[in-house]
Amino acid sequence: MPRIEIDIARCKGCELCTTICPQKIIVMSDQINAIGYHTALAPDQTKCTGCAFCAQVCPDVAIIVFK
Questions:
Q1: Closest CA to 21 of 65, 12, 10
Q2: What are φ and ψ of residue 36, in 5° steps?
Q3: Is 17 helix (H, G, I), strand (E, B) or coil?
């Protein structure tokens, strides 16, 4: 089953991954990371197809895709 992992320590909350995900599984969190940004998270990954668009668009290389 495809899935993603988001490194919240690296995420700067740019929201690019939330806009490019075709399945709309990535959302912004209410939590703030150590550097002061709201981070992305993917709470329900059952619809993840492993397309890796999110990882490709992430400027901080904070997303890893497992296929």
A1: 65
A2: 95, 20
A3: helix
> Is the CB of residue 2 less than 8 Å from the CB of residue 66?
yes
> Residues 20-39: pLDDT tens digits?
999 999 999 999 999 999 99
For the chain, list the domains and their CATH numbers: 3-66 (3.30.70.20)
The three-point CA angle 32-54-26 to 5° equals: 50
Model pTM above 0.90: yes
Give percent helix, percent strand, percent coil of the chain, each to the nearest 5.
15, 25, 60
The conformation of residue 53, written as its DSSP 8-state character, comes to: H
